Amino acid sequence: MFWKTRELTAGIVLVGVALLGCPAHAQTTSTTSTSTTSTTSTTLLRHPYSDATKTCVRAANQALKACTDTAANCQTQYQTDFSKCFAAGTGAKCAKSCITKDGSCVKAAPATRATCKKACRVTRRRDVNACHTISDGDNIWAGGDAACLTTAAGNFDLCLAVCRQALVDCQTTFEFCIANCPNL
Predict the structure, then answer these.
(1) Are 39 and 84 contained in the same domain?
(2) Distance between CA atoms of 168 and 20, rounded to whole angstroms?
(3) 4, 36 in Cβ contact below 8 A?
(4) How far apart are CA 26 and CA 29, in angstroms?
(5) Is 137 found in the same domain as 105?
(6) 145 lies in the same domain as 168
(7) How far is CA 117 from CA 50, 51, 62, 109, in A?
(8) Domain count for the chain
């Protein structure tokens, strides 16, 4: 029974990391096998910038904070400065592409969140309707209507939590994208 708990805990941790959207990339660190189970653990690490790229990105961030122009102009200048922090040609083009995709993702996040929440509400309505159709004596939900409604409410709350992560998903996608760009 212990191995089931350990696997469940590992699964919950990985789902939590995915939902919280830690800006990192995955690296497999170890595999453990026994006669009854096999477990692989994954550690999420930040993208390792080279020293030159790290210094350049830090300078671009400081320039953005110090910018006194309009927000749009400051952001445009930052994107240019940031993309120059990667290898000339391929690296800069890759970084610019990642920035463009991130901008599109961030702009789409409110609509994505709204669509997601709508789907959650539709699913909750269907789940509640299904709970009301359970006839007396039927043990489909192993607790009757109250357990069914509690499960529907829990599923709805989880669905909304996933919807709230739209911007975090953009950040995570950006981190994975930029990890593929050659450094200075």
Answers:
(1) no
(2) 7
(3) no
(4) 9
(5) yes
(6) yes
(7) 40, 42, 37, 12
(8) 2
**Rounded Cα gap, residues 32 and 141, in angstroms:** 36
Torsion region of 47: left, alpha or beta (phi above 0 gives left; psi -120 to 50 gives alpha): beta
Rounded distance, CA 152 to CA 174, Å?
34
**Domain residues for 129?**
51-178
Whether 109 contacts 167, CB under 8 Å: yes
CA–chain centroid gap for 117, Å, is 17
- The pair of three-digit structure tokens given for residue 9, joined into one six-digit string: 């805990």
**pTM, 2 dp:** 0.57
Per DSSP bridges, beta strands 38-45 and 25-33 are: antiparallel
Block means of pLDDT (10 residues each) for the chain, 184 residues, are 41 41 42 55 61 89 89 87 89 90 90 92 89 64 69 91 89 89 86
